[in-house]
Write a structure and sequence with these properties.
Radius of gyration: 18 Å
Structural class: alpha/beta
Shape: globular
CATH class: Alpha Beta
Strand order of the largest sheet: 5-4-3-6-2-8-1-7
Distance between the termini: 13 Å
Order of helices and strands: EHEHHEHEHEHEHEHE
Largest sheet: 8 strands, mixed
CATH architecture: 3-Layer(aba) Sandwich
CATH topology: Rossmann fold
Number of domains: 1
Number of helices: 8
Helix content: 25-40%
């Protein structure tokens, strides 16, 4: 697989040149604020208990993320404050968000007057961890009436208790990016999860997320032409906004 989209940071000279093409897009990538599962993990870490689910023979009985109470973990009060402090640059007309409580809360806060559409493909990489599950679409829709859930299945068909492979994760995000580039909106925000942003920006050979996808030579967002390539490839912080210009050609 060799699919990728060329991107550079907004404000670079190359970005200005690409924006002369009306098919290019400005994409603001937003990670949600602090959520309940992250607080639980920090509390357990202080007691010497950490997740070892992905280690061969790892003990899963004490993993902090396996508690059913963490299903579709929401933002904490601190996370909501972080979202209120998040500012989307320029004139975003569309916010695409994962249909989970913490991303929906973030999107509803940062969107301003922009249209909000829930997109299943922006879900976190699913695993046995219960915070990677989501509530039914109808329940989420009742809580977030301003969000368009038309394309979201009622039930969570992604979560089955197994870890999603890097190849499958790449494939669903590739489909999402093709759809994104076909949309008419010029400036778009994406509100999503840590694992999704790693998959989009980080080089497959760096082994993040579920290990390297050996069939791919570059990240889905190819930052190699950017003067800020190293920074763009790095992990996205909590509530961080990373704004890029994406070339029109696939």
């Amino acid at each position: 697989m060799s699919f990728s989209l060329r991107c550079v940071a907004l404000g670079e000279p190359l970005a200005d040149a690409w924006l002369a093409d009306p098919r290019a897009k400005i994409v603001c990538c937003v990670r949600h604020g602090e959520a309940a599962h992250q607080v639980r993990a920090e509390e357990m870490k202080a007691r010497g208990i950490v997740c070892r689910c992905d280690e061969p023979g790892g003990d899963r009985t004490q993993c902090p993320y396996l508690d059913p109470a963490l299903i579709d973990a929401p933002l904490t009060e601190r996370g909501r404050a972080q979202a209120h402090a998040t500012v989307l640059p320029r004139h975003v007309s569309l916010v695409l968000t994962a249909p989970t409580l913490r991303t929906l809360e973030t999107a509803a806060i940062v969107a301003g007057g922009a249209r909000i559409v829930a997109v299943e493909a922006l879900r976190s990489r699913v695993s046995a961890h219960r915070h990677t599950q989501r509530l039914q679409a109808s329940e989420l829709g009742a809580r977030f009436s301003q969000v368009d859930f038309a394309g979201v299945p009622e039930n969570d068909t992604l979560w089955n208790g197994e870890t999603e492979s890097r190849a499958v994760l790449d494939a669903r995000l590739e489909d999402f990016l093709r759809t994104l580039m076909a949309r008419p909106e010029r400036e778009v925000a994406i509100v999503t999860h840590f694992t999704i942003l790693l998959t989009l920006f980080s080089l497959p050979t760096e082994g993040f997320v579920v290990g390297a996808n050996l069939g791919r030579e570059r990240a889905l967002f190819d930052t190699s032409q950017s003067a800020h390539a190293v920074a763009l490839r790095g992990p996205v912080g909590v509530s961080e906004v990373r704004t890029i210009v994406v070339a029109a050609t696939l």
